[in-house]
Amino acid sequence: METVDLYLSLGSNQGDRAQNMEYALSLLNIELKTPYKAVSSFIETDPWGFESDEKFLNAAVHYQLRFPKGYNPEAECLMILEICKDIERRLGRVGEPEYDEKGERIYRSRPIDIDILLFGDNRIDCPELTVPHKLMYERDFVMVPLREILTSLQCDSSE
């Protein structure tokens, strides 16, 4: 078996944001069949890429998943993407991603957003998914929580 570190970003700016995040985490634990290894603090941030009076709560979460030797990283990551999208729908997210005339993504308020940031050291580039997440380094609301987890993991491993 191989252990793969999965890092996800979560965000919510509609309804009870903290409850949405906690519920999404509990559903991820169930669907990924393992409890998370670490979750960052929830941080409040302004919307990114669109205007809204509703601020976001954001966090990052770390899972360690086990796969048989020789597993297909792209196939497994696409299954994880489906789990994330299903949880988003279950928590009230509607619609599919929209794009403007220039092909730029249109962002909107949402009860929950779950993005795959990293899947081990795998690089995945297919129409449905790019891993590592192509915009993560441009987004403090992703990098601040992710750094918190990675820093705590480094501290744990050095003890």
Tell me briefly what this model is:
By secondary structure, this protein is an alpha+beta fold.
Description:
The chain has 159 residues and is an alpha+beta fold. The chain has helices spanning 17-31, 73-90, 140-158, and strands at 2-12, 38-39, 43-45, 56-67, 98-99, 105-106, 113-119, 124-126, 129-131. Strands 1, 2, 3, 4 and 7 form a five-stranded antiparallel beta sheet that branches. It has a two-stranded antiparallel sheet with strand order 5-6. It has a two-stranded antiparallel sheet with strand order 8-9. Strand 5 and strand 6 form a beta hairpin. Helix 1 packs across helix 2 (73-90). The radius of gyration is 15 Å and the shape is globular.
Indicate the percent of residues in helices: 25-40%
Spell out the helices and strands N to C. EHEEEHEEEEEH
Largest sheet features = 5 strands, antiparallel
The Cα radius of gyration reads 15 Å
* Mean pLDDT across all amino acids: 89
Number of helical segments with 4 or more residues: 3
Write down how many β-strands occur, each being a DSSP E stretch of 2 or more residues: 9
**Unreliable residue stretches:** none
Query: In what range is the share of β-strand residues?
Result: 25-35%
- Distance, first to last CA: 26 Å
Structural class: alpha+beta
Tell the overall outline: globular
What brief labels describe this structure?
single chain, 159 residues, alpha+beta, five-stranded antiparallel β-sheet, globular
